[in-house]
Design a protein that fits this description.
With about 425 residues, the protein is of the alpha+beta class. The protein has 13 helices and 13 strands. The strands form three sheets. Strands 2-1-5-4-3 form a five-stranded antiparallel β-sheet, sandwiched between helices. The protein has a five-stranded mixed β-sheet with strand order 7-9-10-12-11, with helices on one face. A three-stranded antiparallel β-sheet has the order 6-8-13. β1 and β2 (about 120-125) form a beta hairpin. It starts with a helix and ends with a strand. Bound molecules: adenosine-5'-diphosphate.
Length: about 425
């Protein structure tokens, strides 16, 4: 029997014990009044506490308003503690959910949670940007109503998601997305979206590069193989044989140049940042002048325009290779009788190395693409002049590594000026 029931029976008994003698010795009605008054007081007491409980249960705040009397004190105390525990558990869960949401937002991959009907339950900011979703308004919408590309709908509906879907975003054509569908919690699905634009671009560049290299090497190889076959199978006159051998030597020299330029490019790309040696520009210009004279073999006027002021801080072999390529191009693309000016000037604003020619010039539409590997305005002309199509790519890489910019000014039929502009921190000895 509970203590509350014993207490209630005890109080009823007490009222009876007090009321009985009064009813017997004083008056019946007086006894009844005492008995009913005792029970009434008890009822009023319980009713008061019950109303408090009723009032509190409508707005169960955890404060002093939940204070009971007598037997009700224990009940109220236990309710108070229960409510308090519940609240702290809810607060803990809220914090965990907030942390999970924050972690979802911090992901660099997009995440979309779908329910069993492929309706959006949640998506992070990355997914909003990738797919053009707005979680506030799109929650509860079928994802296929919002991402309408047929290849996406087909992929979502297909049973096999062992491979991701590569999707070219129709909102931003330059973005390439890789979408994974991962089942979770039974029949729900999670979409993980990776932005693979960069990898895709590198992949395409690598494929183009391999195709270009193969193409560039295939031509001289075919010529070489043809001559070899002729020499092996036929009796060729000594004069003719010499002519063939000369042409074979020329083709193998061409292949050597391509391989050499490829090696230079790859060593620049994979090398650590260039050393900061002092590069003596006066002797560099002298050397370039001599090389230009050698390449030109008297066909051009070569002029040096430099006051000998200032040197550069950087990697000498890389700078020799970059400047040498600019000089070689000027000789290559300037007809006989033209003038080539090799210039160097340095000041507080930085240093500028330039090669100016009176050559064939370049149409403006080609200029932005000149530093791409194997890009040539006139393939035949470049090949005949011994070019590989890699010279300006090497120049651009070497200069980038020295924080220098390549500037190209050119007018077809008038000439070109290629300048390498170095920032002040690369110039020394002023
Ligand atoms: P290449 O080995 O063919 O010279 P580059 O990368 O050095 O390759 O140059 C790319 C192209 O830029 C050349 O094929 C040529 O069409 C053009 N070019 C470079 N320098 C000059 C120049 N000084 N005058 C005219 N055209 C040039």
């Amino acid at each position: 029997m509970s203590s509350q029931l014993i207490r209630a029976l005890f109080l009823a008994l007490l009222s009876t014990i007090v009321a009985l003698p009064v009813g017997y010795f004083v008056a019946h009605w007086a006894g009844w009044v005492l008995f009913c008054g005792g029970l009434g007081l008890q009822l009023a007491f319980h009713f008061r506490n019950f109303s408090r409980l009723d009032h509190w249960s409508k707005n169960p705040v955890v404060d002093d308003s939940l204070e009971g009397e007598g037997a009700w004190d224990g009940v109220f105390g236990r309710l108070y503690r229960h409510e308090k525990d519940l609240r702290s558990q809810i607060a803990g869960r809220d914090q965990e959910v907030a942390m999970l949401i924050a972690a979802g937002q911090a992901l660099t991959d997009g995440v979309v949670l779908l329910d069993q009907n492929d309706q959006i339950v949640y998506c992070n900011t990355t997914a909003e940007m990738q797919l053009g979703l707005v979680v506030a308004t799109d929650r509860g919408q079928p994802v296929v109503n919002l991402v309408r590309q047929p290849e996406f709908i087909g992929y979502l509906e297909a049973g096999d998601h062992s491979r991701p879907l590569t999707l070219r975003s129709d909102r931003r054509a330059d973005r390439v997305l890789s979408i994974y569908i991962i089942p979770y919690a039974g029949d729900r699905r999670l979409m993980q979206i990776k932005d693979v634009t960069q990898t895709d671009r590198l992949d395409r560049m690598r494929r183009d590069f391999v195709a270009n290299v193969s193409h560039e090497l295939r031509t001289p190889l075919t010529v070489l193989a043809g001559f070899l076959e002729t020499l092996q199978e036929y009796d060729v006159e000594p004069d003719e044989r010499k002519r063939y051998l000369d042409m074979m030597a020329e083709q193998s020299k061409r292949m050597q140049s391509i391989v050499q330029d490829l090696l230079t490019l790859s060593s620049i790309e994979s090398a650590p940042p260039p050393e900061s040696d002092a590069v003596d520009m006066a002797s560099m210009i002298n050397k370039l002048h001599r090389d230009a004279e050698g390449l030109s073999a008297g066909r051009h006027t070569i002029v040096v325009e430099s006051d000998g002021q200032g040197d550069l801080r950087g990697s000498e072999p890389e700078l020799v290779s970059a400047f040498g390529n600019l000089v070689a191009n000027a000789v290559r693309y300037t007809p006989t009788g033209g003038t080539i000016r090799i210039g160097w000037k340095a000041g507080p604003q930085g240093g500028e190395f330039s090669v100016k020619d009176t050559g064939i010039g370049i149409d403006a539409k080609h200029i932005p693409r000149l530093t791409e590997r194997f890009y040539r305005v006139d393939r035949g002309r470049s090949r005949d002049a011994g070019g590989t199509g890699l010279g300006l790519a090497i120049v651009k890489h070497s200069l980038n590594r020295h924080q220098a910019q390549l500037d190209i000014q050119s007018t077809p039929g008038v000439g070109s000026c290629f300048s390498a502009k170095f920032p002040p921190n690369r110039v020394i000895g002023l």
